[in-house]
Amino acid sequence: MSTPVIEEVTLAERAYRIRRNALLMGEVQGQGYIGQALDIADVLAVAYFGAMNYRPEDPEWEGRDRFLLSNGHYAIALYAALFEAGILPQEELETYGSDDSRLPMSGMASYTPGMEMSGGSLGQGLTIAVGRGLGLKRKGSKSFVYTLFSDGELDEGSIWEGLMSAAHWKLDNLIAMVDVNNQQADGPSTQIMSFEPLVDKLEAFGWYVQRVDGNDIDAVKTAFDNARTLKEAKPRIIVCDTKMGCGVPFLEQREKNHFIRVDAHEWQLALEALKAGRQA
Ligand SMILES: Cc1ncc(C[n+]2csc(CCOP(=O)(O)OP(=O)(O)O)c2C)c(N)n1
Ligand SMILES: [Mg+2]
Questions:
Q1: What is the pLDDT of residue 255?
Q2: Which end of the chain is more exposed for a tag (fewer CB within 10 A), N or C?
Q3: Which residues of the chain form beta strands (DSSP E)?
């Protein structure tokens, strides 16, 4: 009897495949929030392949860790991870953003397996995560609630209410990630609304805070490990400094990259550039 071969896939390879899935979806529409999907791929790779507990064949399994995408326009990034995780079937990729697709351009919980909340109106995810975290704790659940929000969402008062209430409720089952790509719809985030010194502010709100290069997958993995294993009764947040378009040099350099249009012939170039930088 032969021993089954179990595929060992590195986190770097997972991140590569997440970026590739995002580019393939982008190509379907010719445009989208591609820069963000490329910048957050390493964080999603660690979340889905180095941290979270879930059953791909049963996305609503009660014992799962929850992932709440606050910034609904990052749906393309989350779908890319859900394909890689086997929660979404790969053949649906080409339906991205089409009529009757389960993959609308902004995340919708009722449409998509693995999408835990509906997005669109920014600044909501953290407070929803606080409610979920509190509910799970009261039920005696051991599940974690992860939530991703973006630096532009720091402009929203509801984020700061969420930060305050999570600490009040001592939510040690809550792990937030903020994507600091220094970009929002109207320009560089720090020019629109200053939020530094962010680590000091978050610590003052009672959180366990780590700040990492969000495109350094080993650093991200260590931060997730620390966040999961900390023994203090505090919510945890990982500030992830990321680079828009990461992995595709000509997209990294694009200006006004909040929502980009990519010429038809450039998708192939983007996939090739991504492949050229692929790490084992
Ligand atoms: C409450 C609310 N206000 C405004 C918008 C419009 N909007 C959509 S994306 C976006 C930028 C948010 O910042 P961020 O997510 O950091 O931008 P990115 O990094 O994706 O460029 C804005 C203002 C919205 N969706 N919801
Ligand atoms: Mg941003």
A1: 82
A2: N
A3: 31-32, 66-69, 145-150, 174-180, 208-213, 236-241, 260-261
Confirm or reject CATH 2.60.40.10 for domain 11-276, answering yes or no. no
Q: How many CB atoms lie within 10 A of CB 113?
A: 14
Residues in the chain: 280
Write the single-letter amino acid at 256: K
Q: How far is the CA of 63 from the centre of ligand 2 (A)?
A: 31
Q: Which residue has the least CA distance to atom 22 on ligand 1?
A: 185
**CB-based contacts of 169, cutoff 8 Å, min separation 6:** 130, 133, 134, 137
Cα atoms found within 13 Å of the Cα of residue 207, Cβ hemisphere only: 27
Q: What is the per-residue pLDDT for 166?
A: 98
Average pLDDT of the segment spanning 114-133: 97
Of 148, 150, 72, nearest to 112 by C-alpha is 72
Judged against a pLDDT cut of 80, whether residue 21 lies above it is answered with yes
**Which residue, among 72, 17, 27, 22, has the nearest Cα to 48 in the 3D structure?**
17
Confidence of residue 34 (pLDDT cuts 50, 70, 90): very high
51 confidence band (pLDDT: 50, 70, 90): very high
How confident is residue 73, by pLDDT bands cut at 50, 70 and 90? very high
Domains of the chain by residue range = 11-276
What mean pLDDT do residues 143-155 have? 98
What is the structure's pLDDT at 152? 98
Q: Which residues line ligand 1 (CB under 6 A)?
A: 33, 36, 71, 73, 120-123, 150-152, 181, 183-185, 189, 258
